[in-house]
Design the sequence.
C-alpha cells in the first residue's frame, strides 16, 4: 500500500474511492437476487461515446446487479433488473473511470444514460509518478465519483434540510475503518435562471482538491466546473453531458418512517447535538443510518453504512459548519 500511494497525489483519492466502490458492489448479490431466476422486469441503456461522438467500442459497463457488458460497435449496453431499489453503475475505458451513476428501479426504468469519454492530455510516455501528470490523466475520471461522496450516500440524498446561499458543512469520511479524507461543501449562490454554484473540496493524505460546480436547477446536472489541485492555478474543467446523476430524493413519508429513535444525544467533531436516528435497509444485511438535527445546513450530522456483522463499512461525520462561503476560484 505504501508503494502504491507514492504513484501520484491524485491517486490518494482514487484508492479511497475505490474502497467505497467495493462496498457498493458488495450489495450486488442482494440487489440482483432475482436476476438469477431470469425475471427481468426493468431495463435501461447506457450509451458511451468517445471523440467526435463515436461509439466507444471496448468500454466496460458494470452494474451492482452483477452485469458487466463490454461494448461493441453500437456503443450501447442494455442492463436488465429484476428487483426494485438502488443500483450503482460504472463506465470504464482502458482502466479509466468515465462515469458513474446511481439509479433506482423502477423509477429509472426505460432511461438511456449517455457517458462521454474525454481522453487525458498526458501521453503514454509521461511519468505518472509526477502528481500533476497523473492528475491530468485521472482527474476528470475521478470527478463523477467524488460528487457521489459530497452529495449522496449510496445514491440517496444526504440533505434532509436545505442549505441557504453561503452556508457550508465540513466532513470527515472513513472507509472500512481506515482510509480517511475530509470534505467540504458549500452552497455559494443562486443565479437568476435558477442555476446554482456549489463548492466542494477534498483533503486526503495532506493533498487537496478544490472544485466549484455550476448545477442546473434542482441540481439535476452539471453545466460548468472550475478546479484547483494543490497549489496549482484554477482551471476550467471540460464538462460533458452524462457526467453526473443527481441523488435520489427520499419522500417525506419515507424519512419519517425511518425514524427509530428521537432525542438522541450524539457527539461528533462539530459538537454535541440532539438528533433523530434514522435507519434504512438498503439490502439484506446492510443498513444506512443517518442522524438528523435542526439548525445545521442540510440537517444531518452523521451517516454511516453498517453490515450485518455490525462492522462499520463507511461513515461520515460533521466536523464544522457555518455561513459566509463565497467563490475562491473566481467562478462568477
Sequence:
Amino acid at each position: 500500500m505504501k508503494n502504491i500511494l507514492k504513484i501520484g497525489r491524485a491517486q490518494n483519492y482514487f484508492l479511497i474511492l475505490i474502497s467505497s466502490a467495493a462496498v457498493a458492489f458488495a450489495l450486488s448479490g442482494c440487489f440482483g437476487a432475482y436476476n438469477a431466476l431470469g425475471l427481468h422486469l426493468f431495463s435501461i441503456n447506457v450509451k458511451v461515446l468517445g471523440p467526435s461522438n463515436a461509439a466507444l467500442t471496448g468500454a466496460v459497463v458494470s452494474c451492482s446487479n452483477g452485469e458487466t457488458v463490454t461494448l461493441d460497435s453500437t456503443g450501447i449496453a442494455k442492463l436488465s433488473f429484476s428487483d426494485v431499489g438502488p443500483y450503482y453503475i460504472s463506465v470504464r475505458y482502458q482502466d479509466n473511470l468515465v462515469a458513474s451513476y446511481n439509479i433506482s428501479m423502477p423509477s429509472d426504468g426505460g432511461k438511456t444514460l449517455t457517458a462521454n469519454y474525454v481522453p487525458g492530455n498526458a501521453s503514454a510516455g509521461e511519468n505518472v509518478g509526477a502528481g500533476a501528470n497523473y492528475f491530468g490523466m485521472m482527474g476528470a475520471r475521478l470527478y463523477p465519483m467524488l460528487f457521489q461522496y459530497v452529495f449522496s450516500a449510496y445514491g440517496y440524498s444526504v440533505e434532509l434540510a436545505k442549505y441557504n446561499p453561503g452556508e457550508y458543512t465540513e466532513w470527515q469520511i472513513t472507509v472500512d475503518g481506515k482510509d480517511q479524507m475530509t470534505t467540504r461543501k458549500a452552497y455559494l449562490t443562486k443565479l437568476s435562471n435558477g442555476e446554482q454554484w456549489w463548492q466542494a473540496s477534498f483533503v486526503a493524505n495532506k493533498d487537496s482538491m478544490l472544485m466549484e460546480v455550476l448545477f442546473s436547477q434542482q441540481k439535476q446536472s452539471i453545466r460548468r466546473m472550475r478546479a484547483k489541485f494543490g497549489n496549482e492555478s484554477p482551471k476550467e474543467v471540460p464538462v460533458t453531458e452524462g457526467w453526473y446523476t443527481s441523488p435520489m430524493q427520499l419522500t417525506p413519508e419515507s424519512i419519517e418512517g425511518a425514524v427509530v429513535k428521537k432525542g438522541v444525544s450524539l457527539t461528533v467533531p462539530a459538537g454535541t447535538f440532539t438528533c433523530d436516528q434514522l435507519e434504512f435497509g438498503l439490502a439484506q444485511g446492510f443498513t444506512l443510518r443517518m442522524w438528523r438535527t435542526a439548525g445545521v445546513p442540510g440537517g444531518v450530522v452523521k451517516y454511516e453504512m453498517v453490515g450485518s456483522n455490525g462492522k462499520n463499512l463507511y461513515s461520515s461525520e460533521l466536523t464544522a459548519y457555518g455561513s459566509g462561503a463565497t467563490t475562491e476560484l473566481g467562478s462568477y
Remarks:
- The chain is about 15% helix and 45% strand.
- Residues 176 and 313 are 5 Å apart (CA to CA).
